[in-house]
């Protein structure tokens, strides 16, 4: 095998005795010995080559070769001489294992033999033998491996294997039809996608602003999500509701952080900091067509349950912090587990994803059920962008990248001030006065409802809580024993006062939609699996 | 990417710091409305009154009943959510609504609906042809109209029957089951007049009852008659049952077809009279999930298609007719979102679920003839400014708004011993 002399390159380290080894074996052995050492080598920073490093230029044949060491008896090939020597022992042949040279270790860097390559320059040399081999294969080699699904070709076997893992598992599709497996590339693409710009231009005179707005909506969420401000400080307050409310309001921000954090570290630490007791979570999962969800949708639905499990478990957790409920239900925990164990998916906003999952779900239900119809491909309709259905589709596609996270904040859902119990009356008053303007529909009514409701909620919840818990727990299964916490917040005390008059029906109707969430934790749990033994046994949906 | 985002960052921070809704273009506003609505329904479902209220406040700033379709849709949905919240205090709700649900002019709304959108015309065309085919050759025909009472369906039908009869027109009896007495009377008068002009033996039999109270003797079936039934956007009310407890404590898969006693009884009754055909027109969307959020999201999709089609039909203009129609849709939405138990009658289900129900009850679909479909398709696709399509799915014809099916028509008869 040939070794090029690298001394022609005016590199300070080019001189040296080991620069032109006589046999390639020796170099390899040295390197092998190096790699066999327990201390891991740190990756050096790119673009800052070690001036003392030894520059090695290997020939293409060397780089591409595998199994250069061949046993003369059985012709078995080995990549390393050490391995060959060990093999020779089996044949009872004389063998010799070379020790690592006692010379001081010299950092070696490798240059690419291809003259046109940027790494041919020693200042752009790569620091790792495996690295240079892979680089050479990838860039200057023949692509021998092919992905079945997407027909993408690879020269390096490990690249191909890595691709096969992710191909088709998660896809983003832009309106223009391009498929992406990576979220960041998808977002980048959308920013400049012609199709979107055209759509904006066609339907609105202010094409620039519309597509700009679109971009704003889509792109900006990752930065805000990533750098979201810390949740508003939880000011201590004495009312029963206020800490609940303020925690809730901050809790809404927290999921943003949490779900983002979950990506990096299993969020146990983050979650435990914000939850005291994790009680039954009103995980607001949407499973409109959950059973019919197929393919990629199913993973997204799973994530919905998971993340919403966290989302709402925080609500409940904070609620339960106030009221002494035994944490009998590890209800949200499976949901949490799911989210944590869940994919390294990004923080998809549960809300939008609910939309998207139903979107995909309904379309897949439909398309799966329909027999004939090429025309029924949902989502390919050329509607003007302003139409409600197109907006819904967009909102669903935008998913987490969207505005939803920034919207949630912008929505002032996190506003601590209006949520404080004590200030409720006053803020409600001010809020009502401020919002008195555009209520196109039932004017006035809503304002009164608000103040009344808050008053009722406030007044009766504290009194009703303890008394009501008992009555709430009895009809329900122990599973839902914790429901009273959130219900009381609603002022189910109202229900309590009416219970005498109208009995169960009033109770039920006042729970009304509030207990819709009762079904929800099961939904969240289902996705997480069978870690929850509730009396009302439900099988996970397919 | 970074440059564009950094240049846009100032805009975003601006819009974040101001609670500003000004400066949002319609598209952004629409997306924001959607997110607000979804956030709100999550809060309502979880029982977070104050947060839901905050959302509603924001929504009311952006939404309007006289705006673009998304705004109108949001206004109706937000109104439904608010109604749901108020219903927690039944006294409040009743007092606000003066002791009864707010009535809207359903008749007028329905008539606007059939005029402005081709959905009903399409359904009528299919029903017309299918009925003719199903009872062709019969001399005594008895058609039972469950709840529609629309002359636009029956007048052409009478004419078609008269045309199709060999040896003169057959004897035709139409029974109209409806709670609306005036509509029945006017329909009866018109049909009788029409039949007279065609010199047909015709009988009109109004039954003033709802589907729930319908019994066989009310229908006055005679032996030897060829029977057919039509139910237009009305059969789902039979699915209403007192399932509030079930909705809270139970859980079923949302696309699982839940056995409904009343519906089964009704279908048994229908089977016992052995009709030659039962025509069913229903909304193609699942609004019968026990979970609010599921219903809400399904409803958003479905009614967004409807509102878009209404907007297209009215050319974006705001007219009293349009308001009436949207009010009717708003009432449906309110029923879906705010109603529970028996009062939630708008229990739409998708055709696939109806198919399961009917099959379980012993019905089999009748193939809707190809010529029906072609003719209907042409009519619909040329309607107005376009946007409607016809699709067929496993025994039902669906009219779609831009690939989203909205209404499904299907025909059934019962197997054996008919």
Give a verbal description of the structure:
The complex is a heterodimer of chains A (542) and B (418). Chain A is mainly alpha-helical and 542 residues long. Chain A contains 22 helices and 8 strands. The longest helix of chain B has 22 residues. Chain B is globular and about 70 Å long. Chain B has 418 residues and is of the alpha/beta class. Helices cover 53% and strands 15% of the residues of chain B. Classes of the chains: A mainly alpha (542), B alpha/beta (418). Chains A and B meet through helix 6, helix 8, helix 10, helix 12 and helix 14 of A and helix 1, helix 2, helix 3, helix 4 and helix 5 of B. Chain B: It comes from Sesamum radiatum (Black benniseed). Chain B: InterPro entries: TF_GRAS. Chain B: Belongs to the GRAS family. Chain B: Keywords: Transcription, Transcription regulation.
Tags for this model:
heterodimer; A: 542 residues; two-stranded parallel ribbon; two-stranded antiparallel sheet; B: 418 residues; alpha/beta; 53% helix; globular; Scarecrow-like protein 3 (chain B); TF_GRAS (chain B); transcription regulation (chain B); transcription (chain B); C2CH-4th_BIRD-IDD (chain A)
Order of helices and strands of chain B: HHHHHHHEHEHEHEHHEHHHEHEEE
* pLDDT < 50 runs, ≥5 residues of chain B: 1-20
| Beta-strand fraction estimate of chain A | under 5%
Helix-residue proportion of chain A? 40-55%
Work out the helix count of chain A.
22
Which term fits the overall shape of chain B?
Answer: globular
User: How much beta of chain B, percentage-wise?
Assistant: 5-15%
End-to-end separation of chain A in angstroms reads 59 Å
Radius of gyration of chain B: 23 Å
Summed up:
The complex is a heterodimer of chains A (542) and B (418). Chain A is mainly alpha-helical.
Topology, please?
The complex is a heterodimer of chains A (542) and B (418).
Chain A: H1 24-36, E1 54-57, H2 60-64, E2 69-70, E3 77-78, H3 81-90, E4 108-111, H4 129-140, E5 145-146, E6 153-154, H5 157-166, E7 172-173, E8 179-180, H6 183-192, H7 194-203, H8 207-219, H9 222-226, H10 241-264, H11 268-274, H12 296-322, H13 332-341, H14 350-369, H15 388-398, H16 403-410, H17 416-419, H18 424-434, H19 445-473, H20 483-489, H21 493-511, H22 516-528
Parallel strand pairs in A: 1-4
Antiparallel strand pairs in A: 2-3, 5-6, 7-8
Helix pairs in contact in A: 7-8, 10-11, 10-12, 12-13, 12-14, 12-22, 13-22, 14-15, 18-19, 19-20
Chain B: H1 2-17, H2 26-46, H3 49-62, H4 69-86, H5 90-96, H6 106-116, H7 118-134, E1 140-146, H8 151-164, E2 171-178, H9 181-198, E3 202-208, H10 216-219, E4 226-232, H11 244-249, H12 261-273, E5 277-283, H13 292-313, H14 320-338, H15 351-360, E6 363-365, H16 370-381, E7 388-393, E8 396-401, E9 404-414
Helix pairs in contact in B: 2-3, 2-4, 2-13, 3-4, 4-13, 4-14, 6-7, 6-14, 7-8, 7-16, 8-9, 13-14
InterPro entries (chain A): C2CH-3rd_BIRD-IDD (IPR055187), C2CH-4th_BIRD-IDD (IPR055185), C2H2-2nd_BIRD-IDD (IPR055186), IDD1-16 (IPR031140), Znf_C2H2_sf (IPR036236), Znf_C2H2_type (IPR013087)
Domain C2H2-type (chain A): 69-91
Biased composition (Polar residues) (chain A): 16-25
């Amino acid at each position: 095998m040939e070794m090029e002399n690298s001394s022609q390159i005016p590199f300070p380290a080019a001189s040296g005795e080991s620069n032109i080894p006589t046999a390639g074996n020796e170099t390899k052995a040295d390197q092998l010995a190096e790699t066999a050492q327990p201390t891991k080598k740190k990756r050096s920073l790119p673009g800052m080559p070690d001036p003392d490093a030894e520059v090695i230029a290997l020939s293409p044949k060397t780089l591409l070769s595998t199994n250069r060491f061949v046993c003369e008896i059985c012709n078995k090939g080995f990549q390393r001489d050490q391995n060959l020597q060990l093999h020779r022992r089996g044949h009872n042949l004389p063998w010799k294992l070379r020790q690592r040279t006692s010379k001081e270790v010299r950092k070696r860097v490798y240059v690419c033999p291809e003259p046109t390559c940027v790494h041919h320059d020693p200042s752009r040399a790569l620091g790792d033998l495996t690295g240079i081999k892979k680089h050479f294969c990838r860039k200057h080699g023949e692509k021998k491996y092919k992905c079945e699904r997407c027909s993408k070709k690879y020269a390096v076997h490990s690249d191909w294997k890595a691709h096969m893992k992710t191909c088709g598992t998660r896809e983003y599709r832009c309106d223009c039809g391009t498929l992406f497996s990576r979220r960041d590339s998808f977002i980048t693409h959308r920013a400049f996608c012609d199709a979107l710009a055209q759509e904006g231009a066609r339907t609105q005179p202010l094409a620039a602003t519309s597509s700009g707005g679109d971009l704003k909506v889509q792109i900006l969420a990752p930065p805000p999500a990533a750098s979201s401000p810390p949740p508003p400080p939880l000011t201590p307050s004495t009312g029963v509701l206020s800490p609940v409310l303020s925690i809730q309001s901050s809790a809404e921000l927290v999921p943003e952080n949490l779900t983002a954090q979950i990506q990096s570290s299993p969020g146990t630490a983050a979650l435990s900091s914000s939850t005291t007791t994790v009680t039954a979570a009103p995980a607001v999962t949407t499973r409109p067509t959950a059973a019919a969800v197929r393919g990629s949708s199913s993973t997204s639905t799973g994530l919905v349950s998971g993340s919403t499990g966290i989302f709402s478990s925080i609500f409940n957790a904070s609620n339960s912090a106030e009221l002494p409920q035994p944490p009998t239900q590890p209800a949200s925990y499976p949901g949490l587990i799911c989210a944590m164990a869940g994919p390294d998916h990004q923080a998809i906003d549960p809300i939008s994803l609910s939309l998207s999952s139903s979107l995909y779900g309904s379309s897949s239900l439909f398309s799966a059920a329909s027999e004939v119809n090429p025309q029924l491909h949902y989502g390919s309709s050329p509607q003007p962008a302003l139409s409600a259905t197109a907006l819904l589709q967009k909102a669903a596609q935008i998913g987490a990248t969207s505005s939803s996270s920034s919207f949630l904040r912008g929505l002032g859902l996190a506003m601590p001030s209006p949520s404080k119990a004590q200030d409720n009356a006053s803020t409600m008053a001010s809020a009502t006065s401020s919002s008195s303007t555009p209520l196109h529909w039932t004017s006035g009514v809503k304002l009164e409802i608000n103040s009344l409701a808050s008053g009722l909620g406030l007044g009766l919840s504290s009194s009703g809580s303890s008394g009501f818990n008992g009555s709430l727990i009895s009809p329900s299964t122990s599973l839902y024993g914790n429901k009273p916490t959130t219900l009381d917040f609603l002022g189910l005390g109202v229900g309590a006062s009416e219970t005498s008059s109208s009995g169960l029906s009033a109770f039920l109707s006042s729970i009304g939609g509030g207990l819709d969430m009762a079904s929800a934790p099961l939904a969240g749990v289902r996705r997480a699996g069978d870690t929850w033994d509730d009396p009302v046994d439900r099988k996970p949906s397919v | 990417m970074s440059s564009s985002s950094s240049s846009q960052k100032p805009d975003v921070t601006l819009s974040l710091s101001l609670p500003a809704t000004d400066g949002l273009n319609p598209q952004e506003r629409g997306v924001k409305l959607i997110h607000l609505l979804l956030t709100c329904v999550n809060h309502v479902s979880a029982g977070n009154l104050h947060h839901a209220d905050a959302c509603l406040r924001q929504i009311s700033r952006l939404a309007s009943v006289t705006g673009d379709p998304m705004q109108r849709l949001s206004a109706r949905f937000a109104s439904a959510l608010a109604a749901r919240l108020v219903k927690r205090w039944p006294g409040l709700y009743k007092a606000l609504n003066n002791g009864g649900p707010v009535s809207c002019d359903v008749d007028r709304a329905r008539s606007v609906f059939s005029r402005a959108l081709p959905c009903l015309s399409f359904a009528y065309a299919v029903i017309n042809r299918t009925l003719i085919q199903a009872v062709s050759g019969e001399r005594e025909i008895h058609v039972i109209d469950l709840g529609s009472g629309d002359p636009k369906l029956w007048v052409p039908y009478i004419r078609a029957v008269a045309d199709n009869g060999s040896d003169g027109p057959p004897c035709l009896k139409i029974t109209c089951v409806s709670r609306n007495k005036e509509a029945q009377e006017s329909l009866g008068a018109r049909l009788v007049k029409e039949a007279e002009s065609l010199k047909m033996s015709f009988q009109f039999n109004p039954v003033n009852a709802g589907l729930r109270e319908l019994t066989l003797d009310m229908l006055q079936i005679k032996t030897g008659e060829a029977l057919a039934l039509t139910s237009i956007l009305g059969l789902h009310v039979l699915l209403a049952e007192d399932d509030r407890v079930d909705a809270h404590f139970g859980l079923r898969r949302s696309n699982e077809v839940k056995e409904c006693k009343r519906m089964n009884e009704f279908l048994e009754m229908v089977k016992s009279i052995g009709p030659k055909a039962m025509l069913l027109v229903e909304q193609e969307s699942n609004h019968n999930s026990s979970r609010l959020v599921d219903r809400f999201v399904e409803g958003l999709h479905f009614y967004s298609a409807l509102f878009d089609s209404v907007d297209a039909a009215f050319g974006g203009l705001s007219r009293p007719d349009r308001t009436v129609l949207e009010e009717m849709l708003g009432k449906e939405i309110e029923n879906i979102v705010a109603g529970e138990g028996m009062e939630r009658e708008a229990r739409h289900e998708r055709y696939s679920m109806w198919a399961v129900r009917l099959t379980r009850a012993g019905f089999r679909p009748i193939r809707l003839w190809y010529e029906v479909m072609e003719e209907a398709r042409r009519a619909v696709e040329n309607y107005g400014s376009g946007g409607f399509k016809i699709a067929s799915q496993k025994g039902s014809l669906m009219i779609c708004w831009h690939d989203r099916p909205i209404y499904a028509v299907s025909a059934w008869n019962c197997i054996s011993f008919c």
